[in-house]
Amino acid sequence: MRGKIALVVAAAAILGLVLSIPSGAGAKMKINVGSTFGPGAPVYKGQEKFKELVEQRSKGEIEVFIHPLGAMGGERDVFEAMSTGGLEMGAMGSGDISIFFPKYLVFEVPYVLRDYDHFWKFWNGPVGKIVNDVPLKQKGVKTVAIVYRGPRLLTANRPVKTPAEVKGLKLRLPEIKPWMEVWKSLGALPTPVPFQEVYMALKTGVVEAQENPPESIWSLKFYEAQKYIMRTEHIYSACKYQISMKWFNTLNKETQDLIIKAWEDAAKYANEMAVAADKDYTAKLQKEGGMTLIEVDKAAFAKAVEPAMEKLDKELFEPGLLKQVRSIK
Asked: How confident is the model at residue 10 (pLDDT cuts 50, 70, 90)?
C-alpha cells in the first residue's frame, strides 16, 4: 500500500497537485484536499467554502485545490497520505476508523445512532472525542470539523420491505468488516467495491444494490442504475474534515489559526444545508431520478441485525464503547 501511495503522490506532484510549501519571494502556499465525495453535496460545498474563506482571509497568499471523486485515491489512500504528510488535508467518511481502527467503529454500524439529535450528541460529547482522538494519537491526523451527511438508505433493482427480502441481494459495500458481517447475517451477498467504482459496478451488474446517504446517491447518479430506494435509515453518516499534523506543524501560529477557523466556518455552512438537503435529494431521486421510494419496517430491521451486533460487540468492538453510544440520551 505504501508503494501505491507513493505512486499516487508522485503522479499528482507531476501534475502540480500535491505541492509542499514553496519557498522564495512571492511564492504561494498550496493546500490540497483529497476526497471521495462528489460535487453538489453539502460536504463538497463545505470544501468549496473552505477554499473561498482561506484564499480570501490569506489575501491570496494561500491556494486551495479540491480533488473530489477519489482523484487522489480512496479513503485508505487519502488517510495514509495525510499520515505521512504527503497530503495536507482530506474530507473523509468513516474510513479512518473503519479501515485502521475498526474496534472503535461503534458509531457507524446499523441501528446504533438513532436519529439526527443522537448523531450530534455523540459527536459533540465525550464518546465522540474518544473516537476522534484515535487517528490523531496513532497516525497524526486531526479531525477539525464534522459534517452531517444524513441517514444511509438502501437502493436496489427490486423492492425490499422486510429483512427477509434482503436474502440473496448482491450488495455493494465498502471494505468495512462490521458492515459486511451485519448484512451477511440478513442473507445479503456483500461485495466490496471502491466508492469511485460503484456507479459502473451498478451499471454493469457487478452488484445489484448499494447503500449511501441521499446526497451521494444523487450526486453520483446512482439513480441511473437503480429503480428502488428503501428508507432503511440504518446508519447516520458523518464527513470529517481532517488535517495532516506532520504538515500542519510546519506552519506558523497565524496560518494554523486561519486554517482551523476556516474549516469550522465551512463545516457550519455545510451543516446548515445538510438537513434540508436530505429531504431535497430524496425528493429529486423520485421526481427527477425516477426512483420509487419504499417505506420499510425499521424496527424489524433493527431487531434482525441485533444478533450480529452482539457478536461484534463481543469479538471486535472496544469493550463498553457500544453501550456508551447507545446510552446517550
From this structure: very low
Read off the pLDDT of residues 120-141 as tens digits, 9 standing for 90 and up: 999 999 999 999 999 999 999 9
H or E stretch including 30?
strand 29-35
- The whole-angstrom separation of Cα 307 and Cα 27 is 58
Q: Once rounded to an integer, what is the mean pLDDT over residues 281-305?
A: 97
Cα dist from 130 to 24, 123, 315, 318, whole Å: 41, 10, 20, 11
Confidence of residue 26 (pLDDT cuts 50, 70, 90): low
Taking the CB of residue 119, how many other CB atoms lie within 10 A of it? Answer: 22
How big is the chain, counted in residues? 329
User: What ranges do the domains of the chain cover?
Assistant: 2-149+238-274, 153-235+284-320
**Kind of pairing, strands 62-67 and 29-35?**
parallel
- DSSP lists the bridge partners of residue 89 as 33, 243
The contacts of residue 46 (CB under 8 Å, 6+ apart) are: 91, 147, 239, 241, 266, 267, 269, 270, 271
Q: Which helix (H) or strand (E) holds 139?
A: helix 126-139
Q: What is the mean pLDDT of the chain?
A: 92
Query: What is the rounded distance in angstroms from the CA atom of residue 75 to the CA atom of residue 17?
Result: 18
pTM beyond 0.85, yes or no? yes
- In this prediction, residue 253 has a pLDDT band, given cuts at 50, 70 and 90, of very high
Overall fold of domain 2-149+238-274:
D-Maltodextrin-Binding Protein; domain 2 (3.40.190)
CATH T-level topology, domain 153-235+284-320: D-Maltodextrin-Binding Protein; domain 2 (3.40.190)
The reply to whether 2-149+238-274 and 153-235+284-320 are identical in fold is yes
Q: What is the pLDDT of residue 6?
A: 44
